[in-house]
Design brief:
Strand order of the largest sheet: 1-2-6-5-4-3-7-8-9
Distance between the termini: 46 Å
Strand content: 5-15%
Structural class: alpha/beta
Number of helices: 21
Helix content: 40-55%
Mean pLDDT: 83
Length: 418
């Protein structure tokens, strides 16, 4: 199925980018998006949504580019669902910046009729993380719960495979085009998902991944989920971005109890601060929802084979740079903490008024956005307008800066220097 106005919404993304709140504003202004495009330059200016850079891009975008995307979707048997389509998920439409276009391989479940839980976590999952991701997803699927994840190695992959083993429904949200060969290890898994569930993306079929696509993708996982489960999220894990977005949307956050290793710092901290419900098994999740429509089908953990879990691919950890140190080198390293401790002493003024760091190397968008930020909160739309960048690129860049400890997100999609 391809939405009747797919061509126009694809043209919009080709002109001003993905993950922009202006798409939703446009959908509210025009009952038929074709009127906006066919109205010409005067109509584009009259609506008052776009800055000069975007107006120029809208004027120069060619319709054959959208036609190529649609023809490619027909070749691959993908559906194209747009913002104005009645089949567009309401839970996704209601967020701040819903995708203008949703590409779908398989069948999108009815999120209004089914409980849905997002499961996210590290790509470098431990045995404990893989087992719990797999078993919890398996059990949730047996209770007719849709499991949403990102298709990455580690926790995501284990969750999807657990659902498939239970013959359940899962949705994989990609940070690239559905047909991209990125993560070939999971290619067969993605094919299996489409038999009952769906692999989806806001990016055209063959679009290759970019760093800022993944943080933007996380808002879709959060939106499609009634609750989000964190598994082995470290202090700077991208999974915490999904959790933060879900909190903003009023969703429930769960976190698997883990030991005190750095691997679990982020998820354990969410439990400690009271923003996440601790989880030891799947019933800790289901107990928070009305289970009247859930199946009585036996969970059957005994049928899960160790070989199933052993087959889950995880990202390998990098070897320490000091693994081959001599005794002399090690002694030098042991002396470092004292020097570091003295360098970490800061004045109260420094803590209250963050300043741009001079000892970091940033390039491209990261450098532009970082230099723009200050101690004064600024809305993401203003950053995008002032820098002449699409909102999706700004969001992805801000997220990377957050992970590096260089920026901080505040309520209302405002950001400050950290």
């Amino acid at each position: 199925m391809i939405s009747s106005n797919a061509k126009y919404w694809i043209l919009l993304t080709q002109a001003i980018g993905y993950n922009t709140p202006k798409a939703k504003k446009l959908a509210k202004m025009y009952t038929d998006i074709s009127e906006f495009f066919e109205g010409g330059e005067s109509e584009r200016r009259f609506c008052g949504l776009f800055n000069p850079v975007e107006l120029e891009a809208l004027s120069s975008v060619k319709s054959d580019g959208a036609d190529k995307v649609i023809n490619r979707c027909r070749e691959l048997d993908y559906s194209v669902i747009t913002l104005d389509d009645p089949n567009y998920p309401s839970c996704l439409y209601n967020i701040y910046a819903p995708p203008a276009v949703l590409y779908v391989s398989g069948k999108l479940p009815d999120f209004d009729e089914h409980l849905s839980i997002g499961i996210v976590g590290t790509r470098q999952a431990s045995r404990y993380g893989v087992e719990n991701s797999y078993k919890i997803a398996y059990a949730l699927a047996k209770y007719n719960t849709v499991v949403v994840s990102g298709g990455a190695l580690g926790v995501d992959c284990a969750s999807h495979r657990g659902v498939l083993a239970a013959n359940g429904v899962t949705v994989c949200v990609r940070g690239c085009g559905i047909n991209s060969r990125y993560l070939r290890d999971n290619e067969k898994m993605r094919e299996a998902i489409t038999a009952k569930g769906a692999v989806i993306s806001e990016y055209p079929p063959d679009e290759e991944p970019r760093n800022f696509y993944f943080p933007a993708r996380n808002r879709i996982i959060a939106a499609l989920s009634d609750g989000v489960l964190l598994i082995e999220a470290g202090e700077k894990s991208g999974s915490l971005i999904t959790a933060n977005l879900a909190l903003e949307m009023g969703k429930d956050i769960f976190a698997l109890l883990g030991n005190n290793s750095p691997q679990n710092y982020g998820s354990n901290y969410r439990i400690k601060e009271g923003t996440a419900i601790p989880v030891t098994d799947f019933m800790d999740i289901l107990a928070n929802y009305d289970c009247k429509n859930l199946s009585e089908d036996a969970v059957g953990f005994d049928s899960i084979l160790l070989s199933d879990i052993d087959a889950v691919p995880v990202k390998k950890k990098k070897k320490s740079a000091y693994s081959g140190n001599t005794k002399k080198e090690k002694s030098k390293n042991t002396a470092a903490p004292a020097k570091k401790a003295s360098s970490e002493i800061k004045s109260k003024a420094d803590k209250q008024e963050p300043r741009h760091k001079t000892d970091i190397k940033l390039t491209g968008d990261a450098k532009l956005v970082y230099n723009y930020l200050s101690a004064k909160p600024v809305h993401i739309d203003k950053i995008a307008d002032d820098l002449g960048m699409p909102v999706n690129r700004v969001l992805g860049t801000l997220t990377l800066l957050e992970v590096q400890g260089l920026a901080q997100a505040l309520q209302g999609r405002n950001f400050v220097l950290k």
